Amino acid sequence: MADLRHNFVGIKSPNPFWLASAPPTDKEYNVVRAFKAGWGGAVWKTLGLDPHIVNVGGPRYGAIWGADRRLLGLNNIELITDRPLDVNLQEIKSVKKAWPDRALVTSLMVPCEEPCWEGILRQVEDTECDGVELNFGCPHGMSERGMGAAVGQVPEYIEMVTRWCKDKTRMPVIVKLTPNITDVRYPARAAKAGGADAVSLINTISSIISVDLDQFAPEPTIDGKGTHGGYCGPAVKPIALNMVASIARDAETAGLPISGIGGVTTWRDAAEFLTLGAENVQVCTAAMTYGFKIIEELVEGLAQWMDNAGHPDLDSIHGRALPNVTEWQYLNLNYTAKARIDQDSCIKCGRCHIACEDTSHQAITNMVDGERRFEVIDEECVGCNLCVNVCPVESCITMEKLPAGDLDKRTGKDVSPDYGNWTMHPNNPMRDAAE
Amino acid sequence: MVDRYLEDGVIEGRLDSDLYEQNFADAHPPLDPHEALVAADRCYFCYDAPCVTACPTAIDIPKFIRQISTGNLEGSARTIFDQNILGGMCARVCPTETLCEQACVRETAEGQPVQIGLLQRHATDHAMKNNLQFYDPAEDTGKTIAVIGAGPAGLACAHRLAMKGHKVVIHDANPKAGGLNEYGIATYKSVDQFAQHEVDYVTAIGGISIVNDSRLGDNLTIDGLLDEHHAVFLGIGLGGVNALGAETDSDDISVNAVDFIAELRQAEDFAKVAVGRRVMVIGGGMTAIDVGTQARLLGAQDVTIAYRRGRDNMNASSAEQDQSSAKGVNIRHWMQPVEVTKSGSGSLNVKMEFTTLSEGKLTGTGKFETVEVDQLFTAIGQTLAAGEAIASIAVEHGRIRVDETFRTSNPSVWAGGDCVAGGDDLTVTAVAQGRDAAEAIHAALVT
Asked: Strand (E) positions, B63-207?
């Protein structure tokens, strides 16, 4: 079996799956259940200063669903822990003592004043937990009080607070970033400049998940009113992957360890984060949807894939996809693909046809010789992949590369064997002067 | 088990009274709201959906299912009723396994079609329970049309005519309207007086009056009706039955399955419906299945359906055959009755000859088996029975000849449903023909 043991900035865990700082890690009871289930680590739900905050007494979550009410996106207006600081600290200490082989990191959020950070860091060190995560991410409730995303949106604040923390503690400092910014590289660079050992991302995305059409109020609705919350779950994974990759690829932050967060639901999601430069992943919504038992599928699925593909350990997959992430302008414009429909697995729903006919390139038939039949018209197919994406049968439609030298019936030209990108293209008014 | 279960003869009360209620409960109970959402989620919203093509009334099935999944039951029902105002009954009695659900791409994909029939029932039940009426009559055209027969074809025709602003008088031979929906459908397919609720729902549009116990031929003639009305629509079904075709001691030795089904539908107490311990049904269509299955449910111990050809030749769908078999009915193929005699005890000896195909023709094999039964049902097809009353209307292959607009040889008379040639004897087809005939009548009268 592949070796999933993991060392993140000196914090060891038996596997790279940590629970993210969130409701599942708010209490000893929950975290112990998670560790019993097999989770490699946990980031304790964010601690703040006493008097502890309070949560709403009404609904805290909203959701969007796919078919069969499968939860795709979750939105929450819960704040940081609403329990007294010393209760949390005692429980952290107790859990770490009972589970020395698991990673236990404490998330923190206090006002932007140096003594506040110094004070809480000292208390956290007493728990003997493995590190701290600075919550510069929460987009709701706390940000209006000058914390969370309000800090994460100002690189100078990130750098300042990170530096304070690095000065005051021996523990590794992970900076958790908000996605509610324009370019995530700036806050990441600030964290690095402040001395952060690592960054973790993404925190939740500012969102209104739905509107109650009877009350004309955002959901979740509290006494007729609603507010924006933080969006997470499978639907945010693409945003998170892009942000992780852009930090991993940035020359200024290259080598800065990343803990990947955002919609990890299956081992495959996790593997994708790891190949785009994350060293481990943090999970929340999937656990909140299905319970802690999903860790079995995550661990076994990742190890099985690594075994089958011949990847002995996590180092051998880390960042492997990064060299293939590029800018659009460097994509090979001579590469040509056409959709192919496997008639044996086609169930004749016609969604490929209507998607192409109404919204794309009129490149799929609906009738051939008087029979209901869906075939690709090579003269029209631009290889856009929409048909693949709307087809309900996996692998029924595939995109096949046209070999160099073959005629592309759409353009009437043979496929070029050469690499040619936009920077070289005659239609590009900005093309390299050398052309 | 009561003692009467094992008694020979045709007797009442073979079962404990609570068993009847259980046996004749809704065959396919409705989906609850959660089940409906799960079922609706499975629809792929196909392009030019095969299910729509397979539906004789061409209901926009992907649209009505999408409306269910978005919580718009009212709109869903309207989508159904736009094409099929008897969509409630069709949801109960359509052989969906050979129509929409057979064509469903998820049948192709997984062998499990979307439950279109039950979803249609979910939406139409919502509308009918809440008496949501979607249609108003157009401005009065001053035209009146006589519709003969208040079955599916006649009701669909009348409703569409009323929508167009015509006045409609329906004459029906029976004490209750509904035709085969009221008298011809297995009891467990239409419970709680659904057929009568549907008649009320359809006629609530206004402009439709129904005259019961008014049979074509009894003081009612086509010419007479045309004196009073601008057009006539015939939805008279098939009133006659085919003869047994075996040698018998007497004419009343067998029971017409159609009459038995009607008796059962009208029964206030199933325990009062007499049935044999040993029952044989001759035939291979839906009527044979319905009577055989219901005989079992009434407590017949031993029920055999005997059909002269093979399983694939039966008009009853394989799903219906399987459901009947699951109720304990024994379906036997390749045999036909040649002689029926009454024994001293009152039982019947049915001499069956095994059959085979010889050069494509059905022939006897010369091998026989005699079966002793208490009750013999014939379900071997129905015939047009209006006789003299429609003598002026051209008939072909025993049914009324119509053109593509359902107009008969008399240019003021249209016809639809089982009584016309070229149909498939389905409720849903009758609805489609009645509806389309109404459009043709409207076009003829107002242009």
From this structure: 144-148, 167-171
